[in-house]
Amino acid sequence: MTQPVLEINHLVKQIGAKQIIKDISFSVNEGEIFGLLGPNGAGKTTIIRSIVKLISKTSGEIIILGKNIDTSYTEAIQQVGAIVENPEFYPYMTGLQNLKTFASMSRNKISNERLEEIIQLVHLDKAINNKVKTYSLGMRQRLGVAQALIHEPKLLIFDEPTNGLDPEGMKEFRLQMKMLARQGVSVLVSSHLLTEMEQLCDRFAIIERGELTHIADMKQENLAEAEQLQTFHMHLEPLELSRELLTNWKIDYILADNGTSHFFVKSSPSDIPSLVKKLVSEDVSIFAIEAHTKTLEERFLEITKHNGGSME
Ligand SMILES: Nc1ncnc2c1ncn2[C@@H]1O[C@H](COP(=O)(O)OP(=O)(O)O)[C@@H](O)[C@H]1O
Ligand SMILES: [Mg+2]
């Protein structure tokens, strides 16, 4: 296992008497997209601002590729590309002029080829010679990503990057991040939207009132979901025969209590095809079969409830 790209150990931020961040620890691996999920006021921005030292932390340790930000800030931050506030651009300059201005401030010489490459990556090639004041929010956001990428960082940090983007813009951002992750770049990203985190991240931490209550691993969550028993609504005729067969086969079901032959069967999804075959071979007519999958919110509550917390 290679060293983590970002390591946060026992981060605490106190303002006045209030602990805004309460002993948070997590790490982000190479090529991993890691999310911070939580409602407004949970502490996501405070965590991110502490990492890039826009604010000072009260205690704890932040290490970027082995460099502690307290003792080796310059070396640590060289590895980071971040959009923490809304990216600021000169509106009367073109996208390209903005990027070149930013590149000229970099300690390394940035070649035109490198700029071209980044512009293509964020799909701004057509608009790059237009003035930024004519850009949509999505285009500004992509220009922000381009700016963050200029010095080839190993770690990208974005605070609520898709706020205000339309679904198409969100998808575009997601695909870009996944492509960068495949090239070995790590991404730390915050959001208050569960669906977004599920689609974008490999893992995400749930932050509630300054505490990290759970780390969801999408690989494991998907696996767990596939193996879970689900409820299937089945409309089977005739009623009596269907009831008898399901009982004989020791299927876990309940029957609608209004006298109609609607069954609610508990089964793992992988057992459904063989059940259907058996029913058909016994001359049962199947008028409907439908999975009652849990909504994301239900699953989210499941994740958070056994920690005693709640969102909002
Ligand atoms: N400078 C500050 N002074 C006092 N309270 C603050 C300050 N900055 C943030 N907070 C409080 O800390 C909590 C976390 O804020 P923040 O990190 O912005 O949350 P998020 O980004 O998850 O919405 C909130 O309750 C907020 O009011
Ligand atoms: Mg915030």
TrEMBL record:
Is Transcription set as a keyword in this record?
no
Key words of the record: ATP-binding, Nucleotide-binding, Transport
Q: One Pfam family for this entry, by name?
A: ABC_tran
GO MF entries: ATP binding; ATP hydrolysis activity
Amino-acid biosynthesis among keywords: no
InterPro entries assigned to the protein according to its UniProt record, in alphabetical order: AAA+_ATPase, ABC_transporter-like_ATP-bd, ABC_transporter-like_CS, P-loop_NTPase
In this chain the ABC transporter domain maps to 6-234
Q: Which domain of life is it from?
A: Bacteria
Family statement: Belongs to the ABC transporter superfamily.
| Designated name of the protein | Sugar ABC transporter ATPase
Q: Which organism is it from?
A: Listeria cornellensis FSL F6-0969
